[in-house]
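Need residues for this backbone.
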């Protein structure tokens, strides 16, 4: 009897330890296969200015217009504030931007607020009725497929009715059927944050490699080894990193590819 009590005690302590240290344990078990790099390696606009011997600050190119959404607002599928700032800064130097996955339009709005007057942003997304028609591929993770549907709930966006809406073109279409042939070699920045299932990430990424221009950057959201809903993103990026230089941006869930690296 005493052994059973002891075993139960050890087991409950182990479970408690796991839940208290879940993030650290997952990080140890699920190591990133992509090389982690600092933000300065993404682009020189992120190099900092020395203010004093113990203080460095952002260059003017990385001072952006940003906003936060209160968690009470319960918007799904957003980037973190740090990730938003990175995408906002890149938008300042991008004239032609493409986004896979609009959702609430938070990132689209931030990209429109920061890009120059004549820039264009195209974002592709699904209406609820279109998402209902999506079929799960054999290779697709169940949770990612469920999220794909639960995140396809908006037909109006945070930028709707704002001054910058004129820069934005939203395409309501399953990105797997999207014909990229009209958009080859055009984009300075592509943000891949649409469906997180293997079939969609693969299709969006393969199209993006054809759509970025000579100096273009592709950024993926949700490279988080160990996170169930990001499993297919991690799997696909790990696979292609054998042949393509894809990097993981430290302290973020972003990974990126630069055409000119
Ligand atoms: C994670 S949310 C995007 C979040 C948004 N990029 C942001 O930063 O606020 C995913 C979006 O991708 C869209 N999506 C999922 N699968 C898609 C597909 N096959 N084609 C087009 N859009 C898709 C969903 O409708 C949803 O709007």
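Answer:
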């Amino acid at each position: 009897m005493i052994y059973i009590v002891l075993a139960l005690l050890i087991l409950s302590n182990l479970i408690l330890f796991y839940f208290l240290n879940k993030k650290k344990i997952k990080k140890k078990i699920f190591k990133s296969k992509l090389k982690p790099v600092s933000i300065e390696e993404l682009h020189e606009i992120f190099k900092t200015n020395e203010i004093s011997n113990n203080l460095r600050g952002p260059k003017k190119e990385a001072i952006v217009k940003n906003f936060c959404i209160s968690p009470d607002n319960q918007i799904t599928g957003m980037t973190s504030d740090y990730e938003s700032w990175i995408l906002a800064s890149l938008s300042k130097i991008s004239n032609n931007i493409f986004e896979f996955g609009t959702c609430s339009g938070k990132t689209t709005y931030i990209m429109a607020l920061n890009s120059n007057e004549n820039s264009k942003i195209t974002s592709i997304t699904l209406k609820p009725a279109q998402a209902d028609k999506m079929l799960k591929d054999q290779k697709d993770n169940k949770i990612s497929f469920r999220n794909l549907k639960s995140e396809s709930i908006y037909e109006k966006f945070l930028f709707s009715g704002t001054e910058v809406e004129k820069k934005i073109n939203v395409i309501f279409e399953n990105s797997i059927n999207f014909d990229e042939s009209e958009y080859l070699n055009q984009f300075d920045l592509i943000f891949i944050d649409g469906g997180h299932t293997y079939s969609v990430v693969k299709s969006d990424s393969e199209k993006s490699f054809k759509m970025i221009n000579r100096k273009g950057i592709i950024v993926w959201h949700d490279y988080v080894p160990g996170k169930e809903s990001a499993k297919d993103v991690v799997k696909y990026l790990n696979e292609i990193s054998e042949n393509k230089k894809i990097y993981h941006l430290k302290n973020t869930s972003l990974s990126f590819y630069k055409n000119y690296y």
